[in-house]
User: What shape does this take?
Amino acid sequence: MCGICGIYNKNSQPVDPDVLRRMNDAMTHRGPDDWGMEVAENIGLAMRRLSIIDLAGGHQPIHNEDKSIWVVLNGEIYNYGDLRTKLESLGHTFYTHSDTESIVHLYEEYGDDFVTHLRGMFGIAVWDKRRQRVVIARDRAGIKPIFYYQDDSRLLFGSEMKVLLQHPAVSRDIDYSALDAYFTNCFIPAPKTVFKNIHKLLPGHLLIVEKEQVFTKKYWELDYQIDEQMTFTESITEFRRQFTEAVKLRMIADVPLGAFLSGGIDSSAVVATMSELSDR
Assistant: This one.
């Protein structure tokens, strides 16, 4: 796993790189292989990397051709190869083999709709220097976490809550309604967290900062439609097709692959399918 974090000062005050570095260092355990940081006046992005794809060239943050768009990614984009081929045909130039770089050019091409083209698990932050805006995206199922804090002067975000607590502006005031929910339900429903001013970005949502305004936008919703004409046999065939495709996509890596076996049917099915798809 990797980790990302960032600071956007809505009051145009320069970002303190030492504070951003402390935030990034708080999640060293998420990415022992590499780290990166980019600070440009009132915006700062940082990340810790666990290298999976393009081990040598995938250093983040990653930028576009004229360095007007910067991206950090926590996660994996499974269809980045197809996206790269399409984007190159549209005239975009790549300087790495990283899945992260496909996000940069998707944003150039499609704006906020870039996220609808992605297949994967991700927490993403895009800094659009020309338009002075930040777009933060969480994957459809909410596999990768995004926490954020905002007040009148700034927006902070990170892959873990403790990252935000490194900033001196963030208090540790308890949200007692969230605590009540935890003791009642054994979990705290999003977007609440145990801290008053720290929130979770919901799965399938964007968090956008634009012209000092901060708002969220849903980009995906689960389709509950059922094909009542499909037979049981057809359902089995379709499930096997989709399951095999899902496993195959997750086997794209530049490092050795492995799996945890719990002894249950699900993990055993994953490993059996991996064995069928692999010559290793």
About this structure: The first strand starts at residue 3 and ends at 9. The chain has seven helices and twelve strands. Helices lie at 17-25, 80-89, 99-110, 161-164, 176-185, 232-249, 265-277. Residues 58 and 98 are 5 Å apart (CA to CA).
